[in-house]
Amino acid sequence: MVRAYTQEHVYHHQWDRVTTAAWRKFTDPDTPAVLSHIVDVHTLDRRLDPDSGSLQAVRSITVRSPPLPFLLRRILGQDAVVCHCVESTVVDARGRSMEIVVRNASLRGLLEVEERSTYRPHPDRPEGWTAFRQETSIRCKPFSALAAVAEKVEQRCAERFQQNSVKGREVVERICNYLEAETASAAAAISC
Amino acid sequence: MGSNKTSRGGGATASPCARLRDAYHDCFNRWYSEKFSKGQWDKEECVAEWDKYRACLAQHLEDKHLRRILLETEASPYFVKNDASSPADRDGTTHQ
Q1: Residues of B with CB below 8 A from A28's CB?
Q2: Which terminal residue of chain A, N or C, has fewer Cβ atoms less than 10 Å from its own Cβ?
Q3: Which of A23, A88, A106 sits opposite B78 (nearest CB)?
Q4: Span of the secretion signal (chain B) (predicted)?
Q5: Mind listing the pLDDT tens digit for each residue in B11-66?
């Protein structure tokens, strides 16, 4: 069974600032309080094509699952599990688009999650606003004996993902505001 | 956000590569924000930071799946948009 949902959001900040904030979302020092499920982030690969202005990067994002249903806790012998996700990002600086795909690398016997996000200048105000779109699909691997449990896990994961998506957007928004203030105060300091 | 908090990976991480990672991420964030995203994409930067960080990960990263991504510099499937779940060795060379 697959659950899929789409979210959209408009940031009232220009594209370069929003995508800068998006890169910093998981590693910002204030983030752990908001995105407490993030355990660790590492960059595994990155490459730049200087001719086309294309940047690609692969990162691992280690997360702690929500508390598992009772039956899974019994089977696995622990309350939650640590899961590695792999995030693959392509940024086209020339065309001003950022595309991110996140998939879980571990627990794929239980769950397949794919989250695709894009950041592009908003068509109504390309110099000032950024359109964000995110499509998430969560597919539970069928366990014939545990179908009901599997569906419950999927539902809980979907809810948690949605909550975390909203929190993630708030983090990006906060970093955008910080970057805006930083730019403004630097400009004020120069123009004395 | 300008404070010197040590935990940057999103939690209490005892990762031995944490400091090299933070140095690389700081450099990357600065380069991305000031240059790449504003149109200056012709020059690679943060190369020294990346090399040191990557060497540390090559030594300490434990997860097999993540190690494979890290070490497959030529044939990573994750740069293809419709990638399959197992990597295809496109050019026949692997760097181990």
Answers
A1: 1
A2: C
A3: A88
A4: none
A5: 334 578 999 999 999 999 999 999 999 999 988 899 999 999 999 999 998 888 88
